[in-house]
Design goal:
This protein has four helices and 14 strands. The chain has 260 residues and is an alpha+beta fold. The chain has two domains: 125 residues, D-amino Acid Aminotransferase, Chain A, domain 1; 119 residues, Nucleic acid-binding proteins (OB fold (Dihydrolipoamide Acetyltransferase, E2P)), CATH 2.40.50. The strands form four sheets. Strands 9, 10, 11, 12, 13 and 14 form a six-stranded antiparallel β-sheet that branches. Strands 3-2-4-6 form a four-stranded mixed β-sheet. A hairpin with a 4-residue loop joins β9 and β10. The longest helix has 15 residues. It is elongated, with a radius of gyration of 22 Å. The chain starts with a strand and ends in a 19-residue tail after the last strand.
Length: 260
Amino acid sequence: MPAGTGLDGGELVVRESGLRSSGSSSALPGAGPEPPKAARQWPAHYVIFDLLHAGTSLTDWPYTRRRAGLEALFADHGLQAPLTLYPSTTDPATARGWLEWKAAGLEGLCFKRLDEPYVRGARSWRKYKVRATTEAVVGAVTGSLAAPRTVLFGRYDAAGRLQYTGRSTTLSQAAGRALADLLVSPTGAHPWQGLTFSAGWGTQRALDVLLVEPDVVMEVAVGVARDSAGRWRHPVRPHRIRTDIDVTQVPLFGKDDASP
């Protein structure tokens, strides 16, 4: 990288089993007990989004000119992996085609105005995330049984164990009331008895949850990104309660979800 080069944005991307996976800290150099081994097994690439400085400040340039400068930086200096230039297009058909890359772990697309300068601290990118509609089992809730606030979802694995797979966004009042009518305390030993759940990224605080009988199925919208344990990385959007299907009809834990 030439001296005086300044970059902004970007994402660390790790390929797991041939698929794209971002934010998998266990696979990044320096993480875990054997960082060199992890780095060899899951090499990380840095996907660059924007060029802000090339000997002089480029922040007043429109994005189209900064993008051209970024492409020239790669071409003129032969930059290659682990540095990666993300693809870009103004063709809607090409963008729609990229959205079909769900099987490769594509989470979605980012949009930016072509004539826009770089504004420090401003969120000028717009994101469109790929989501799939699927089903999951209600295993626990936050709030109370009478007024659930969020849902902790699970799916059974091939051995018949209920695995935690993700947490919902905040329920609307109507959705909370509808779900409350079906929630009951566990009638026996719960598969998640004794487990703790994190309150969120970057915190050690445990989430206060109420376990429920895992016999309610909900239709949900989920992002395609999963963490290293196979859970949905982003909050799940509840759609509706599925009283017409049984928990045995829910996809198994770790299986691909339905098409968006």
